[in-house]
Amino acid sequence: MSDSFDRLMKEAEPRRILSDGFVTKLQKAMDDVGRYSRQNPLAAAAGWSLAAVVGGIAAMLIVGRVDLIPDFVEFLLGVVGG
Amino acid sequence: MHENETELIKQARGGDRDAFVVLVKDCMEQVARIPYYILGNREQAEEVTQEAFLKAFTKLSQLADDVPFKNWVSRIAKNLSIDILRKRILFQKFQRNGLSEEVDTDKEIVLDVRRALMKIPVNQRLPLTLEYYDGLKMEDISQITGVPIGTIKSRIHAAKKKLKELLSDKL
Q: A20: which chain B residues are within 8 Å (Cβ-Cβ)?
């Protein structure tokens, strides 16, 4: 039974999955990613800033210092407002 | 592993796209099998594979020195595939029509096996197919799935048992 099971499994093994143009498509997508980063440094910086703010709040929640969040927000508003 | 993998990774981290493409070509078919095993659909597997390599390209600095590139990207592909499975509730959909749409065969027995495979839970199907079709070692399967080796062994055992039940009239 095990032999016939193994034979059945082997027979159903998938062949090639990717299409011929896969590498070309990937290279184009890599170029697009690179171009976007170069053309939108401001968006990239904004993204990292937002991530830092969310991370900061999450860290306070994790350590149980929810009381610090208003001060943190006030600090951020001070920075943004100059 | 590619004999110059460490050097290629170093070059790719420095922005050398050609070096990254060499790494991709070395393992892309193997990586593509992960989403295929999970989602059961070639087109989706190709999309996920592209996304996984793009993600790897932008986060190459996060690759640990002791983890082979292939296993790392495979794990990214696995996580992306599971996300798709969860979000779109594809499991039920592909149970019905995923593998039956395969175009690489018209053999009924092959389709029967693939349909049976898709009836097995994904956390059992993936280790089973990685062992059977890719001949991966337990350690590699563990790195890709993020599951301890002992658990993988028991899941493969359970998967075989279920598959044999499902295919009992063919054996």
A: none
Q: Report the alpha-carbon distance of residue B4 to residue B36 in Å, rounded.
A: 28
pTM of the model: 0.73
Chain B residues interacting with chain A (CB cutoff of 8 angstroms): 17, 20-21, 24-25, 28-29, 32-33, 36, 42, 45-46, 49-50, 53-54, 57-58, 104, 107, 109-110, 113-114, 117, 132-133, 160, 163-164, 167, 170-171
Dihedral of CA B67/B69/B70/B73: which sign?
positive
CB atoms within 10 A of CB A55: 10
What letter represents residue A77's amino acid?
Answer: L
Rounded to 5°, angle at Cα B48 from B43 and B49: 95
User: DSSP assignment, residue A68?
Assistant: G
pLDDT, one tens digit per residue, over A53-75 is 777 777 778 777 777 888 877 77
C-alpha dihedral sign at B73, B79, B83, B84 = positive
Q: What is the ipTM of this complex?
A: 0.78
Which of these, B104, B85, B87, B105, lies nearest to B95 by C-alpha position?
A: B85
Interface test with A, best of B39, B57, B166 (most A CBs within 10 A): B57
What is the distance in angstroms between the Cα of A17 and the nearest Cα belonging to chain B? 6
Question: Which of B75, B63, B52, B71 is CA-nearest to residue B13?
Answer: B63
